[in-house]
Structures are given as C-alpha cells and as structure tokens.
Amino acid sequence: MKLRNRVAIVFGAGSSGPGWGNGKAAAVAYAREGARVACIDVAEAAAAETAEIIRSEGGQAIALAADVTDLASVEATAAATAERFGSIDILHNNVGVVVHGGPTELDEETFRRNLDVNVGSVYRTAKAVLPHFLARGSGVIVNISSLAAIRWTGYPYFAYYAAKGAVNQATVGLAMQYARHGIRANAIMPGLIDTPLIYKQISSQYGSVEEMVEARNRLVPLGHMGTAWDVAAAAVFLASDDARFITGVLLPVDGGQSCGVSA
Fold first, then answer.
1. What is the pLDDT of residues 155-174, one digit of tens each?
2. Residues 102-128 as b or e (16 or more Cβ within 10 Å = b)
3. In the annotation, is 199 catalytic?
4. What's an example of a GO molecular-function annotation for this chain (predicted)?
5. Contact 56, 28 (CB under 8 A)
6. What is the side-by-side strand order in the sheet with 90-93?
7. Which residue in 4, 176, 227, 252 is a FRET match for 199, CA 20 to 30 A apart?
8. Where are the alpha helices (DSSP H) in the chain?
9. From the candidates 30, 123, 157, 160, which is the catalytic residue?
10. Which of 155, 248, 144 is nearest to 188 (CA)?
C-alpha cells in the first residue's frame, strides 16, 4: 500500500475503447496501492467505468468530466476532488492525441489543436493543482509523455513529436521551479504499448491490425509491445515515497527501444 491515505487526480482516466488504456490502468493501479482517486476524462462514461472498477475492488473513487483545453473545466474538477477527499497529493496527466502528417499535410488549426491537447493539458492541470500542492508543501506530478519526444518512431506525426518534446521540458521546468516547495515532477515516455488507442489512431497506417501488431512487436528489443500496466507500474513508483529523491526524470518504458539507433 505505497499510496495509502493519498489522493490522486488522473486526467485521461478513461479508455478510448475496450481494454486497458494507460490512464485507466494508472488510476486503478493508484487505487490498488491505497490512493483515493478522482477519475477525470472528457467522456464522463469512460471515467465512470474506471471509477466503478476501483469501487468494485474496495477502493474509493469519483468520476468527473473535464476538457483539458478548457481551464475552468479543469479547475472545477480539481476543486471537486479537494472538496470530496480533503486534499490532492498526486497529479497524473495522461491526455494525449496523435495526428498524422508533416507540416505540408497538417492544416494550422489541427496543428494548434494537437499542441493544445498534448501540451496545454500539462499547463492547465498544473495551474489548477499546484495551489493545492503549494499550500501543503508537497505533491507529485506524473506526466505521460512518449518515446516520440526523443526518437523518430517510424510514424509521420510531426505535431505529436513537437508536443511531446515540449511535455518533457515542461516537466523539467516544473521539477526545478517547485523542488524547494517539496513538489516533484517526472515524465514517463512509453514506447510501443498495446492499448486501445493504437487500434483507433495507428492501425490505419498498416494493411491490417495483425500486420500492425507484428510490426510493432518486431521493433521492440524485448520482442513484444508493453501493456498499460507497465506504464502504470512506473507511475506508481514515481508517485510513491520510493521515488522521494527522484525529480525531473524522463523515464523510458519501452522495452529497450530508446537504446537503439533507429526505429
């Protein structure tokens, strides 16, 4: 019970399809370690599903809807979480979207939207939750970045590369600015993870789903994609006191892929 008596607010706690997405698994993993969890998602039904799983296992959870591109929406969920549970100890940012195309294919509105979701979410959730951390003199931020922040992954998604690179440095900035206030911030960079999202946003790049799975497995030195639970386990570690002397770290969870010279 590494997180007993702590409160975690997880943005992007729903899943984009049947199965386990990174945010859904993280929310449940936090609860299994004793945290009370606010499950936040733009789709309230998806957040409610995750919260119900937590409650069915004997944990405490609430489900709320929020749009991470709208500050008032994010602030309202942070206030509701603090009111319900009395505090916020862990901020987990999992919201992200992939848009394919380079500068010549992307229209400006799509590019801006991608940055607003992927990087703007880090800004708005931090803005909403940091006052709670500062008042207590403690807190942990876990941002979900991507291996795409530091490597070409084989996919033509220029805006996503730019956005996740920004998430990495934003995390470092948070870690350094607020270290003296007892606040830690780290990012996880998942590599090729088998989640519902890839079947909705990545599979169109391949001839078939089977071809996609085989190709992605082949790129990982360990021989297979990771799962959402691999990312969740890293999040629990970074949020716990086991990582009390770790801040500003960009942690690959990628089966060794970041050690290679190419995708």
1. 899 999 999 999 999 999 99
2. eeeebeeeebebbebbbbbbbbbbbeb
3. no
4. oxidoreductase activity
5. no
6. 61-65, 36-41, 7-11, 90-93, 139-144, 183-190, 250-253
7. 252
8. 22-32, 44-56, 71-85, 108-118, 120-136, 158-178, 196-201, 209-219, 228-239
9. 160
10. 144
How is residue 221 written in tokens?
């030195």
If phi over 0 gives left and psi between -120 and 50 gives alpha, with beta otherwise, what is residue 86? left
* Residue for token pair 């010279």: 261
- Total H helices, total E strands in the chain: 9, 7
Instruction: Give dist(CA 36, CA 136) in Å, integer.
Output: 17
Residue 63's nearest CA partner among 13, 29, 108 is 13
Domains observed in the chain: 7-194+227-248 (3.40.50.720)
123 half-sphere exposure, CB direction, 13 A CA radius: 12
Longest dimension (CA), the chain: 53
The tokens of 74 are what? 């994010």
Average pLDDT of the chain to the nearest whole number: 95
List CB contacts of 103: < 8 A, sequence separation 6 or more.
Answer: 111, 158
pLDDT in tens, 197-211: 888 777 777 889 899
